C-alpha cells in the first residue's frame, strides 16, 4: 500500500472491457500520445504509470490495462482489487461490447471498493457511421449506475485526456470521506502476477 502527502495521490486505475474495445489504445493515447492502427491484444495485463496535475494536487495513476479475452477473465479481480478508479470501455459500434461493459460494472459493484470512481468510456467515437450504441442510451445507463460517461476516440484523441482528468478530479473527494488525510491506498498485485503482464 502506498500513499504520499496531502497533495500527492497514488491511485491504482484499472481498464476493463471487451476485447477490441480499445482499452490499450486509450492508455497508449493518454500515456504516450500515440495511436497504433493495429494494436496487438493484451496478454494478461499491461502496466503503465502517468502523473497528472489537478487543481493543487498531483495524481500518479498506476494503470492496469487488462486483457479483454474471456480466458483471462479470472485474472481480473487481481487487478481491480484495491483500485481507486476503473474505466469500463466499450466500442460504440458493438452492442455486444456494451452488454459486456454492463457485466463489468455489475462485477465491480458486487466485488469492488464501494468508493471506486467508475467511468464508462464509449470508445471509437470517430466511427459515427458505424454506431450501434447511442450516446443517450449509455448516458442513462451510467447515471443510473453511478458512473460518469464520456465518448472517446483513441484515434483522434477526443476526450481521452479529459476522461483521466475527470477521474483525477473525483478521486480526492471520493477518498476524503473514508480517509481524512486524503490518501489513496494502492493495493499492488504480487510479483508473480507481474510476470504475466506484458511490458510497456
Automatic annotation (TrEMBL):
| Localization (cell) | Endomembrane system
List the source organism: Actinidia chinensis var. chinensis (Chinese soft-hair kiwi)
Q: What is this protein called?
A: Ras-related protein
General function of this protein: Protein transport. Probably involved in vesicular traffic.
Which SMART domains does the entry mention? RAB, RAN, RAS, RHO
Listed GO MF terms:
GTP binding; GTPase activity
Name the family the entry cites.
Belongs to the small GTPase superfamily. Rab family.
Q: Looking at the UniProt record for this protein, which Gene Ontology cellular component terms does it annotate, in alphabetical order?
A: cytoplasm; endomembrane system
Query: Which keywords does this Swiss-Prot/TrEMBL entry list?
Result: GTP-binding, Lipoprotein, Membrane, Nucleotide-binding, Prenylation, Protein transport, Transport
Q: How does it sit in the membrane?
A: Lipid-anchor
Instruction: Choose any GO biological process term that the UniProt entry carries and state it.
Output: protein transport
The lineage is: Eukaryota, Viridiplantae, Streptophyta, Embryophyta, Tracheophyta
Keyword check for Transit peptide? no
Identify the domain of life: Eukaryota
Pfam family name, one: Ras
Amino acid at each position: 500500500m502506498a500513499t504520499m502527502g496531502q497533495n500527492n495521490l497514488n491511485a491504482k486505475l484499472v481498464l476493463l472491457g471487451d476485447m477490441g474495445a480499445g482499452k490499450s489504445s486509450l492508455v497508449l493515447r493518454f500515456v504516450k500520445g500515440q495511436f497504433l492502427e493495429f494494436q496487438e491484444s493484451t496478454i494478461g495485463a499491461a502496466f503503465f504509470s502517468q502523473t497528472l496535475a489537478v487543481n493543487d494536487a498531483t495524481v500518479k495513476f498506476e494503470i492496469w490495462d487488462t486483457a479483454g479475452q474471456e480466458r483471462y477473465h479470472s485474472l481480473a479481480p487481481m487487478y481491480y482489487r484495491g483500485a481507486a478508479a476503473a474505466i469500463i470501455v466499450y466500442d460504440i459500434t458493438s452492442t455486444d461490447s456494451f452488454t459486456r461493459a454492463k457485466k463489468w460494472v455489475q462485477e465491480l459493484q458486487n466485488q469492488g471498493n464501494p468508493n471506486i470512481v467508475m467511468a464508462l468510456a464509449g470508445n471509437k467515437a470517430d466511427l459515427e457511421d458505424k454506431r450501434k450504441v447511442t450516446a443517450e442510451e449509455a448516458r442513462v445507463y451510467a447515471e443510473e449506475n453511478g458512473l460518469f460517461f464520456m465518448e472517446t476516440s483513441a484515434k483522434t484523441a477526443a476526450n481521452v485526456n479529459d476522461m483521466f482528468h475527470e477521474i483525477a478530479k473525483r478521486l480526492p473527494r471520493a477518498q476524503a470521506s473514508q480517509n481524512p488525510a486524503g490518501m489513496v491506498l494502492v493495493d499492488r498485485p504480487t510479483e508473480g502476477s507481474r510476470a504475466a503482464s506484458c511490458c510497456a
